[in-house]
Automatic annotation (TrEMBL), chain A:
Source species of the chain: Planomonospora venezuelensis
Phylogenetic classification of the source organism: Bacteria, Bacillati, Actinomycetota, Actinomycetes, Streptosporangiales
Cross-referenced SUPFAM superfamilies: Thiamin diphosphate-binding fold (THDP-binding)
The name this protein goes by in its record: Pyruvate dehydrogenase E1 component alpha subunit
Cofactor(s) required for function per UniProt: thiamine diphosphate
Domain Dehydrogenase E1 component, chain residue ranges per copy: 48-319
The enzyme's E.C. designation: 1.2.4.1
NCBIfam families found in the cross-reference section: PDH_E1_alph_x
TrEMBL record, chain B:
Record EC number: 1.2.4.1
InterPro entries tied to this protein: THDP-binding, Transketo_C/PFOR_II, Transketolase-like_Pyr-bd, Transketolase_C
GO MF: magnesium ion binding; pyruvate dehydrogenase (acetyl-transferring) activity
Protein name: Pyruvate dehydrogenase E1 component beta subunit
Amino acid sequence: MTADASRGAQAPPELVQLLTPEGERVEHPDYDIDLTPEEVRGLYRDLVLVRRVDLEAVALQRQGELGIWASLLGQEAAQIGSGRALTDADMAFPTYREHGVAWCRGVDPVNLLGLFRGVNHGGWDPAEHNFHLYTIVIGSQTLHAVGYAMGVQRDGAVGEDGAATIVYFGDGATSQGDVNESFIWASVFNAPVVFFCQNNQWAISEPLEKQSRIPLYRRASGFGFPGVRVDGNDVFACLAVTRQALKNAREGQGPMLIEAFTYRMGAHTTSDDPTRYRVQDELEAWKLKDPIERVRAYLFKNQLADQAFFDKIDAEADELGRDVRRRCLAMPDPEPLAIFDHVYAEPHRLMDEERAAFAAYLAGFESEESSR
Amino acid sequence: MTTLTLAKSLNEGMRKAMEDDPKVLVMGEDVGKLGGVFRVTDGLQKDFGEERVIDTPLAESGIIGTAIGLALRGYRPVCEIQFDGFVFPAADQIITQLAKMPLRSLGALKLPVVVRIPCGGGIGAVEHHSESPEAYFTHTAGLRVVACSNPVDAYTMIQQAIRCDDPVVFFEPKRRYWEKAEVDTSAADGWLPFDRARIVRPGTDVTLLAYGPMVKTCLEAAAAAEEDGRSLEVVDLRSLNPLDAATVTDSVRRTGRCLVVHEAPVFGGFGAELAARITEECFYSLEAPVLRVGGPSTPYPPSRLEEHYLPDLDRVLDAVDRAFAF
């Protein structure tokens, strides 16, 4: 039996949009943004560069240099818009697809490749860029973010110069218990956290109607905080809405749910084959809403950038792609005994014992080699 | 020296830790005003406030997940899981996140989170309130797993667990909460490291390995065996992961016989690890195979049957007889 998708939906969903797919600026009564031409060109550069890094990573996987890759294709505006809304003091908790947010936080793109190449499980210091490690199990990080935000509250890091926390998750994650628990926790403790849900319409092969009968942003009201749907392919709107939500959180107004309505233009990961479950027409329709093309159109129409600018960004993207490739290939495999490192922070005799035993075992091969 | 129950010793230990370090938090269901269903956190919220002793929503995964987040922000949360059988909704956060996040960060992150779990049976409770889930956690790398058996250790070990930079699953023998002992709450050092076992009764004929609630049972068995002229050595393991294997194997090499005693089902239980290790390391010292005394491989029974399920003095002595019969 299929649920009637219209049940429970009182009114058609509203969408905050500030830049149309054709590159026209539009007004919204609740959200606005004032960007200098320099800032708009900066956003365009971000969008193009993260798409280029993503493209390179897909290619690296196809050539066997990465075990798997989760592409952000189509979600660049949601990630750059929200990522550029963060202050240095803010903290971000990503899923495994937030390459654009990582870029905004200053994480070296090559660092993202380690876990996909299989040389580590993450391996950057979250405190260095206030960007937590990628979380693979769906939705777990929402609780970590709320706990972190509760810590911020206890530190008194509130107000204008305070620290807000943002946590990323997808449409599929909204079915997880942890995500729902995190909504409850954030609500009852009034935690300074922003829930940023990228609804990319697909949880691997399952469309949104397998997760929800109502638009996702409306879930928030049941938990006691506001929710809003934003055009996830509109970098201006994502920036404006997220900036406001973070400000509200810092100023003690509690959590907010942002549903960035977007589309996963690629496969779930490089191991996935979307032709088995979705039609090409859907993809073609979303291509017309491309997050980068509309900014390019806006820049062109308003004569804020010339061809030389676009050529320069393209050249920079190609150089970045080459650099990421070169450094990915140069990434060394870890030493075998690294298996035992960092399992515990304090000395642990079982680790010591097993490390020593394995080292002795490996040494046996070396002495065999040398005796030949 | 003060006479304290095991529950009160834990309470005093947590109080001391909270006084020593403002980053220590206590969180869980009913831990505030009520003081916990076993009153282990009694009075802490009154003295340290709602910001540090947090009555949480009723969701175990949320307790551990948010504790991880608080630890990432520099806090040292002590979480109470109300009963052993309620830990499973939090198992994903404990096993998948708490245990593995430090490694994921290549050591950049530390998660000093203590997960307190009242464990074991013997209190006539309904289903899910009498379980011994330690083996699930000893099998999970990244966690330390300890169990206290008496008020003196409860006072020191809870403080050591809170000070530890690794996540610690801390088992409390709920039917021993009301056991009393003289506890020295003035000393702040000179404690046995909390990853070390302790020989609580020296003996020469058989080594009994136990932890948590079964330590007392083994001590009773040792006293009874003495009347039969058998000298049983009782080792309180205290730490299950890491295991103090040196203390265990030294003892078994001296006695030549070994019993492992726990409430949890024998099959696939922590005793299996002990038996295998001892066999590997003490093979030529053994007069008999390592024998295991524990619960049957069934779910915990209704409470009218629990006295048959739980190892008691007679079951231990029966195994001692079998060890001598080889």
